[in-house]
Amino acid sequence: MTPIKLYVGLGNPGGQYEATRHNAGFWWIDQVAASNNSPLKLDSKFLGLVGKLSNSNDTWLLKPNTFMNASGKAVAALANYYKILPEQILVIHDELDLPAGTVKLKKAGGHGGHNGLKDIAAALGTPEFWRLRLGIGHPGDRNEVVNFVLKAPTKDEQSALDGAIDKSLSILPQLLSGDFEQAMLKLHSK
Q1: How far is CA 179 from the centre of its chain?
Q2: Model-level pTM greater than 0.85?
Q3: Which residue has the higher pLDDT, 50 or 57?
Q4: What pLDDT does 81 receive?
Q5: Is 92 within a domain?
Q6: Where in the sequence is the domain holding 58, given as residue range(s)?
Q7: CA–CA distance, 70 with 86 (Å, rounded to integer)
Q8: Is the pLDDT of residue 44 over 90?
Q9: Nearest-CA neighbor of 9 among 101, 117, 102?
Q10: What is the pLDDT of residue 111?
Q11: Which residues are 131's β-sheet partners?
């Protein structure tokens, strides 16, 4: 059982993107940082906001500052520097294919059109990293996807997303110990 050593929340930097659906991964990292007294600081070497979990010397939090489509640069920079393997990385991201408020944990797989995941897989040379998929729903028309992810969720969607983030934070102890079977059982059961 290999524990997660790097938690990467995906999003876009800048105030105009802060409240958008595409920044759900950033929200997750912010919650973990706040609840674990683990401040994030801008680190130009790792191209993002970086912090250590307060209860661990070798577990990192990262919010890439490279914009979504170039997230892999930041992930690879930190992972390579600290010799973190792809299977020790958890990428937290918005997921169009899940209803708002749904949260799923999985290892590896395709990118499903998510440019952040695509760039991370390319930068790491493998898709064999963990993903925490935060459902944001789908606009119903693929031509509306870009517009949809770059807008704020409705009040109900935000409430559902906040609930999904809270639920997923409850599996942090299992992620830190590498007990993914227990994490998935806890997260995916009603």
Answers
A1: 18
A2: yes
A3: 50
A4: 97
A5: yes
A6: 6-188
A7: 17
A8: yes
A9: 117
A10: 84
A11: 91, 106
